[in-house]
Amino acid sequence: MGMPDTLRRYTADEVLAFPSDGNRYEVVDGELLVTPSPAPRHEIVRWQLIGELFRYLAPYRAIAMGFAAPADIIWSTHEYVQPDILIVPRAEVTNDWRDYRTLLLAIEVISPSSARGDRLKKRRLYQRRGVATYWVVDPDAQLIEVWHPEDERPEIVSDVARWRLAPDLPEMQIDVPTLFSDLPG
User: pTM to 2 decimals?
Assistant: First the structure.
């Protein structure tokens, strides 16, 4: 297969049938989003976030579970995404990604090649699909944009990122400068 035609509409099933070539393929409203394998900066930040979230979630495994990409979240024929990190209610956890409908937290660590898709296309989809909290993590600007379904603008966080699984549970806090402190050039 040659390069996919990015001007036509795709379905999730078509994209899932693509041969593995090292790129990440997603579909938002039929539009194909293609991003290359992530750079080391992206992966350093992603793994630090995974560590923080898994430590926070450890006592609450009966309530929610966390996952890291690749995870095939398919909401409809023309809505297929792979968030870098996602937290879902424990009640939805099965061995089939198609059962994962409710994202309590979705996180995308942006790269130059993914910024438009993550900030615009996927953010709008996540808001429309009721993703409770969406973080756009920007290693270059060293900040996190926090979005909720009803937001018209993000909360810009450059000091301490906060998230809680439920109103009656303790808050997770991530020191944003420390998150970005070990990044290579």
Answer: 0.90
CB 54 within 8 A of CB 93: no
The answer to whether 81 touches 122, Cβ cutoff 8 Å, is yes
Tens of pLDDT, residues 85-119: 999 999 999 999 889 999 999 999 998 888 888 99
Q: What is the pLDDT of residues 142-161, one digit of tens each?
A: 999 999 999 999 999 999 99
CATH architecture of 38-179: Alpha-Beta Complex (3.90)
Terminal Cα-to-Cα distance of the chain (whole angstroms): 35
DSSP result, 64-86:
EEEEES---EEEETTEEE--SEE
- Tell me phi and psi for residue 184, to 5 degrees: -75, 155
* Annotated domain spans of the chain: 38-179
